[in-house]
Design a protein that fits this description.
Helix content of chain B: 40-55%
CATH superfamily of chain B: P-loop containing nucleotide triphosphate hydrolases
Number of domains of chain B: 1
Radius of gyration of chain B: 19 Å
Largest sheet of chain B: 6 strands, mixed
Structural class of chain B: alpha/beta
Oligomer: heterodimer
Strand content of chain B: 15-25%
Largest interface: A-B, 22 and 28 residues
Number of strands of chain B: 10
Shape of chain B: globular
Shape of chain A: globular
Number of strands of chain A: 0
Helix content of chain A: over 70%
CATH topology of chain B: Rossmann fold
Order of helices and strands of chain B: EEEHEEHEHHHEHEHEEHHH
Number of domains of chain A: 1
Amino acid sequence: MIEVIYILWLRQLKHYWRSKARLIGSLGQPLLFMVAFGFGFGPMYTRASGGANYMDYLAPGIVSMSILFTAVFSGLEVIWDRQFGFLKETFVAPISRTEIMIGKTLGGATIAMIQGLIVLSLTYVLGFRVPGLGSLALGLVFMFLIALFFTGLGLTIASKMDDMHGFQLIMNFLIMPIFFLSGALFPLENLPPAIYFISRIDPLTYGVDGLRGVLTGMNMFGIYNDLAVIVVLSALICTIGTLLFSKIEA
Amino acid sequence: MQNILSVQSLTKKFDDLTAVDGISFDVEAGSIFAFLGPNGAGKSTTIKMLTTVLKPTSGEIRINGFNVLKEQDKARSSFGIVFQDYSLDSELTAYENMVYHSVVYKVPKAERDERIKNALQIVGLWDRRDDFVKKYSGGMKRRLEIARALVHYPKVLFLDEPTVGLDPQTRKSIWNHIMTLNEERGMTIFLTTHYMDEAEAMADKIAIIDHGKIIESGTLEEIMERTETESLEESFLKLTGRDIRDENGNGGSKMRFMKSMGRRHGH
């Protein structure tokens, strides 16, 4: 069991490591957001908040963003596996779908974590400072949970998709709203009721809030509440994903 | 002789279409069994059910004594399969593909390297083991898939049109490998092909399926005698008619689409 999960995990890490273009390319977006928003909105934020540094607010949001995108992508990669036929090879092997799901979720989550760590170290260059090792350790826990949830979500969606045609739909109507309304870029205060509601059912909201809480001390819902929400949601999505996954036919 | 594969009233219904309609047949251990039929006759659906990719609507399948539905993993360990379409990970090396397969098929760790080496030597790819699969030609990929299917020592090897799109040299070498496996290891071979000469030369027993039913089966001689023909190709055409088939129920539009695509891409 452990070895099967390991080999599935290893395969995804090899894919990630060998695709340098993807590795570097996917750093472009968070970097651009950091620079454009950080320096663009920074002065406004400082004035409105009465002296706070926007980079402190933004950095955990951008780290979460890079994890979100990488994780969802990794999950959706199963669709490629299906189109290139490799999924069949895995599906006729004498292993359970649960093992496959665990291996793939951990693989995707690990990649998203690495990506998040790279972005976190880039924020250092732009002036963001993690207060200490304790906060960093707690930050890693939140980063891993965000990665786990969104890889699970990607896999769940992938088990319902036959090809990449629906990709734009997923990106623009699910992933982008999840990102923009999570409080990653701006505080979720004084919002119109509809937006307020969406931001409260957005899973990333709690991930970002928790990560920001442990890294900077700015926190809305309480760190343990954030932790509880994201743990429960991760468990839920992985269960749903495994159920849907066990039904698909290669 | 003992039956390694036994199929009882196997049926698969899709919404309004019965793709496989209550077929039964047995395959003797150590034999080569050719499963033939026009496009859309139900061949691929049958192979998918035999190899646990698709769930049957009804019927029973036993491989190596294991019920394919109830003892799925034991049945899965008993066969190897080369799918019609390539099913390799092209971003991994040939050797890494083999290791992946050994692990998911639970080949004991101590035997892994030796078995992989053996299998790759059989198909002549040992020297190219560290190349990425994306650099392989079509024939090399097929040989690698055969090697991969051997690593867990299957009792039955399913080959779904394994030589489609390959040049005559490669086809010949692939069939030679398969014959050797059958003769030296007593491995049962279950194959589908559209090349009647291949089936004629290889198969101990032949079954012809059309419209989801087995319309003829037996040895080559028996089939030729019953259909009063001189070759398998003639028997096949006599039994299944000369009309060109669409792939499936909605295949008509697909065929037209493919034709118009074909012109543009010069197929």
